Amino acid sequence: MTAIKALLRHIETIRYADLPPQTIAAAKTFIFDSIAVGISGSRVPTVSQVKRAASSWGDAKQAQVWATGEWLPAGNAALVNGFQIHNQEWDAVHEKAVVHPMATILSALTSYAQQHHLSGEQLILGVVVAVDVATCIGSAVTSGLKFFRPSMCGALGVTAGICAMQQIKGEVLANAMGISYSQLSGTMQAHVEGSGMLAMQIGINARSAMHAVDLALAGFSGPKDILEGPFGYFTLFEESYDIDLFYQRLGKQFQIECVSHKPFPTGRAGHGCIDGLLTLQQQHGFSIEQIQHINVLAPPLIMRLVGRPLKTDMDSSYAKLCQGYIAAIALQNGNVGVEDFSAQSLSNPDTLALAAKVSMQLNDCQDPNALAPVGVEVTLTDGRFLHIDLPAVLGHPDRPLSKEQQVKKFWAACRSAIYPFSDDAISKLINAIDGLEQISNINNLVQLMIYTKNRGIL
């Protein structure tokens, strides 16, 4: 059986009743996390530009923008919400696949569910299936990132998730996946340049994946051999792959259980340094003034993603992926938050001076897709040399965030939105997500994801 046929069979056969309790719990955990991150993403100034453009692409009122509540065609709402989820680099990641599955997937599935009045159970099922598809494909790749895998694998996941929610099978499902594949887009050039287009690639693919289902339902046909064909995903977009790795995951464990949290709003590749520095500082109690030098030992992917040089004219997109700046902020504040990428913070001379003390070098890991292990070395002015090795970074399933840490992140994210949510509004949203499987219409959930004043949407 070919990989695509195995994938289609998987999409067709999974039912909500088949999901173990731990899988449902994991889906709710990352829906919880991604909703908060998407609400927080409303604070980014470029969101207004995206919404201004999207407002000219149709006036159907099918789904809403998170936090601010504008009604848009469902695909356009998914585009904006996907951008909001990923625009602060705070969204979850499947480390083995190097795919941020929830940004593309949840933005699209929630908009589709709102448009079609689907239930919480249907949303959970769609997320589980979509994450399986996106990450089983991504996990089979043995070469480094060239195209933007999160948006592209995420789009295939979206189409699969919608079909699972609506029980779309057979030829229509196959066509939908082929049409979705034919629209994939996104490269790593935006990452290299620190461009906001990186997050927009998430939104664009979320929207196109939804439209693929509409085209298939209308009877349009798509290519079929989209994974292993001569111009299939593995051949066209990746330099090398091992199909056995695909089969080792598909159907063996639901991959939503293998997703990592991002405790900090930076690229996941920067988290090991933050984790190591804060742990060393807690263990040894050194001050910033005592730091002579910091060295981060990391795999090739981390070097590629956050090993960029420090600049005095950085914008927030660039700084979130600059290891030196991330490290300096963590040491100064004991944390890294969304407010640490303001223009004032980015130009702080003390921060830049501390950031200049950070260097990076390759460790012994040769895996081009690995985000661990990470080593952190700190040399102090009193001659002490401190070192920590992190085989798994905070937020990974092997070192998961506690429920208390997850809730703390949720509150911080909702309070950082363009219109900060009230304590009562946050509590109601938390309770609704906790009981997601009991919700009969996702519109009831989305209304709690929108800032209200005097019961009216701003």
Q: How would you explain this protein's 3D organization?
A:
This protein folds into two domains: 3-258, 2-methylcitrate dehydratase PrpD (Orthogonal Bundle), CATH 1.10.4100; 268-390, 2-methylcitrate dehydratase PrpD (60s Ribosomal Protein L30, Chain: A). Residues 454-458 have low confidence and may be disordered. It is globular and about 70 Å long. Helix content is 52%, strand content 7%. A hairpin with a 4-residue loop joins β5 and β6. The longest helix is centred in the middle third of the chain and has 21 residues, at 197-217. Strands 4-3-5-6 form a four-stranded mixed beta sheet. By secondary structure, it is an alpha+beta fold. It has 21 helices and eight strands. α2 packs parallel to α19 and α6 packs antiparallel against α7 (149-166). The chain has helices spanning 3-13, 21-40, 46-54, 74-86, 101-116, 120-139, 149-166, 170-182, 189-193, 197-217, 233-236, 243-249, 271-284, 300-306, 316-319, 323-333, 343-346, 349-355, 403-415, 423-434, 442-448; strands at 63-64, 71-72, 291-298, 358-362, 374-380, 385-390, 452-453, 456-457.
Any chance you could write out the topology, listing elements then pairs?
Elements: H1 3-13, H2 21-40, H3 46-54, E1 63-64, E2 71-72, H4 74-86, H5 101-116, H6 120-139, H7 149-166, H8 170-182, H9 189-193, H10 197-217, H11 233-236, H12 243-249, H13 271-284, E3 291-298, H14 300-306, H15 316-319, H16 323-333, H17 343-346, H18 349-355, E4 358-362, E5 374-380, E6 385-390, H19 403-415, H20 423-434, H21 442-448, E7 452-453, E8 456-457
Parallel strand pairs: 3-4
Antiparallel strand pairs: 1-2, 3-5, 5-6, 7-8
Helix pairs in contact: 2-4, 2-6, 2-19, 3-4, 4-5, 4-10, 5-6, 5-7, 5-10, 6-7, 6-12, 7-8, 7-10, 8-10, 13-16, 16-18
